[in-house]
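FSD2 protein
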Amino acid sequence: RLKEFLNKEVDLQLSTLPDFEERVIDCSEVEQLMNSINTIPAPCAPVINPQAPNAATGTSLRVCWGLFSDDTVEYYQLCYKPVSNERHGDEQTEYTLKVKETYCTITNLLPNTQYEFWVSALNASGISPPSERAVYVTAPSPPTIKTKMIRSCENAALVCWESRDINPVDSYVVEL
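Structure:
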């Protein structure tokens, strides 16, 4: 019997058209509920630390910063560029790194060069204002001793060297 029933062609027609009511849905309760949910605010601006002693080599810099609030931070955006004394210094290439910690070591830099750094904090709600900018300097590269110009006598020695740096070096320490 089931097989016979399923093989029959059934024509369903409604004798009357369905009568739907137009309803206005009040979403004010949902809106109140959504507004009452605590959202995480965008973080405050981090504070970048000045360059610490021994935080630089000829090709790297260790940059540190802090966040002096209880803001939730997913990651930091560290930006930097070389400082230029030329008039077109604003056209310098800016580099951006995504960092999870409150410090970062940047490598492949030029010796005895100033770099400007700033950092922002990010979370699901947005990005903080950038920190104040801080200038860090890489260490100079070691000088090259001119071995053919070395002279010595019983009580003295003359040692000559030349700097391989583009920027001038403030001073040298000679160790014996």
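The chain has a mean pLDDT of 85.
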